[in-house]
Design brief:
Elements: E1 6-11, H1 15-29, H2 40-51, E2 57-63, E3 66-75, H3 92-95, E4 102-110, H4 119-129, E5 135-141, H5 145-153, E6 157-162, E7 171-177
Parallel strand pairs: 4-5
Antiparallel strand pairs: 1-2, 2-3, 3-4, 5-7, 6-7
């Protein structure tokens, strides 16, 4: 039976109002994780950084008034370093950003009771439905083969691997065209 959800779209002006909700869901999803970047303080820095970017967008799914998951991201700016540490190095034309070419999906997470219900794809698709960029990119833990396979099933393709900053795990850089 499909899960009935209310999917709500938020922009940069809403970031402060949804910040604690994003952190609380994250804390539940990553509870017990040994990932050094999964702590609330570390994740709060990512939330604050992404939500301050022009074009920030977020979709939160609710079951009644209970948040069940979310996705957020923002367009890559012309000065982005997103592609800088991807190996093998990508062609210059592929990495050239305009601020309107590529939407970076920074986070997508769903709480345990709603996993396996199609909720993550619904959140993903609603977030991207109104975007004007040509493509979407994301980074996924290299060790999480099931998650990578899920994204491949959504038409993402791996373009390389990266460790974008000290302390980050090995990640797979994935890209797919926007579906109109």
């Amino acid at each position: 039976m499909p899960v009935r959800l209310d999917l709500r779209y938020y922009g940069q002006a809403d970031a402060a109002a949804i910040r604690e909700l994003l952190l609380d869901v994250h804390d539940e999803v990553y509870e017990g994780s040994d990932d050094p970047l999964a702590g609330r303080d570390a994740f709060a820095r990512f939330v604050d950084s992404w939500s301050a970017r022009p074009g920030f967008a977020c979709v939160v799914a609710y079951d009644g008034e209970q948040p069940v998951g979310y996705a957020y991201g923002a367009p890559l700016s012309p000065t982005t370093t997103w592609w800088a540490k991807v190996t093998p190095a990508l062609p210059e034309g592929f990495t050239a950003e305009t601020g309107t070419r590529t939407f970076a999906l920074s986070e997508l997470m769903v709480r345990e009771p709603w996993r396996g219900t199609g909720t993550s794809l619904r959140i993903h698709d609603v977030l991207l439905a109104s975007r004007g960029e040509d493509r979407v990119t994301l980074l996924v833990h290299k060790a999480h083969s099931k998650v990578r396979a899920l994204y491949e099933g959504w038409a993402y393709r791996m373009v390389g691997e990266a460790v974008p900053f000290e302390g980050a795990p090995e990640l797979c850089a994935m890209v797919r065209p926007m579906v109109r």
